[in-house]
Amino acid sequence: MKAALLTGVQSVELREVPQPELPEGGLIVKVETCAICGTDVKMYKYGYSAVELPFIPGHEFAGVVAESNAADIGYPEGERVTVNPNIPCGTCFYCQRGLQTACDDLRIIGIHRDGGFARYVMVPALAVRQGCVLHVPEDVSYEEAALIDPVSCAVNAAELSHVKPEDVVVVIGAGPAGCLNVEVSRIFGAKKIILVQRSQQRLDQAVFTGADVYINSSKEDALERVMKETGARGADVVIVAAASGEAQQAAVKMVAKRGNVNLFGGLPKGSASVEIDTNLIHYKEAYVTGTHGGNNRQCKLALDMIASGRIKSGKYISFRKGLSDYIEGLKLAENKKGLKVFIDPDK
């Protein structure tokens, strides 16, 4: 089968590789689509210490069960599925407490094992047993279903940040992660949502999210405007959905007393140390947390949000490319063109 292999920093090759073998208790999924994520771009640009090269990236995928050793538990051949790529061990300290994203041995399809930028992907028995494989309703497209991972991340962020009715939420970054955080925060009941972004084109593109205030931080002081919009109180929740140390610094200034700052966007390797005035956290009695990934419960919530139309999933489909155009797709994502690039492995 043809696959896109990451072979080094800024090195991708399209190769013919053997089709994965069906594992005991697991599945082979024929990939119908796989979206390019910011993590894929970061791995391509900077590398990733957890990755053993060469390997096939791609963790936001959906498709059809092509081969099954799990038909007896509801996964027959021909079943439409999407997969939470974050596979918890189920036995460690954190898994036993329901904190699967903090699993000590979390294994991620598309990072620790071959992913979805290929015609077929192997889903191990552990993923099936842990509930990582979700059935896709007939009225949900494969592209929409592939969004469960980033939507579940936004659900995780809303939960960890305690977004609740009547809250004022600031989201910094109007890329796909930022847009999803706006939509999910609204579902959680946020009364007023402020979206901050340096690019006017990105802000214009994000209007579909229904944020209440859009701030172009290249044209006005975002902190000053947030304080004006909140009666000088600050925001109850600030979600930094951008890989920006400057945005993280601003978030601590924007957050209200007893508010929550969520560092949703990871920083590139080598630039993760940021100078922050910790006295602001101290005297505001503010909370700072991070978010990465979503657990299976959150993925099920994400799929329900997509299926019900509460997430405008179709708005995230900006480009459709074949596997032969994977590098072009990476460049589109790297240059922040549109929101999501979807790769069809059959083309």
Task: Note the topology.
Layout (H helix, E strand, L loop, with lengths): L1 E7 L2 E6 L10 E9 L2 H9 L13 E9 L11 E4 L2 E2 L19 E2 L11 E4 L1 H5 L3 E3 L6 H4 L2 H13 L7 E5 L3 H12 L4 E6 L2 H6 L7 E4 L5 H8 L5 E6 L4 H10 E9 L14 H7 L2 E4 L5 H12 L9 E6 L3 H9 L5 E5 L3
Parallel strand pairs: 10-11, 10-13, 11-12, 13-14, 14-15, 16-17
Antiparallel strand pairs: 1-2, 3-4, 3-8, 3-17, 4-5, 5-9, 6-7
Helix pairs in contact: 1-11, 4-5, 4-10
Describe the structure.
The protein has 347 residues and is α/β, with parallel strands linked by helices. The chain folds into two domains: 2-147 and 311-344, Quinone Oxidoreductase, Chain A, domain 1 (Alpha-Beta Complex), CATH 3.90.180; 152-290, NAD(P)-binding Rossmann-like Domain (Rossmann fold, 3-Layer(aba) Sandwich). The protein has eleven helices and 17 strands. Strands 3, 4, 5, 8, 9, 16 and 17 form a seven-stranded mixed β-sheet that branches. The protein has a six-stranded parallel β-sheet with strand order 12-11-10-13-14-15, sandwiched between helices. It starts with a strand and ends with a strand.
Please name the defining characteristics of this protein.
single chain, Quinone Oxidoreductase, Chain A, domain 1, 7-stranded mixed sheet, Rossmann fold, 6-stranded parallel sheet, globular, 17 strands, 347 residues, 26% strand, alpha/beta
